[in-house]
Amino acid sequence: MGLQQQRSPVSLALVSLGLVAAGVYFILVGLGLAPPPGTQHAPGWIVMLIGLVCVLAGLLLVPQALGLADDKAQLARDAPAWMRRAQDLAGTAIFGLFAVVGTWVALAGDDAGFTMETSFGREVPANPIVARMAFGIGALITWAAFIALARRCWRMVRST
Question: Of 37, 84, 137, 146, which residue is most buried, by most CB within 10 angstroms?
Answer without folding.
Answer: 146
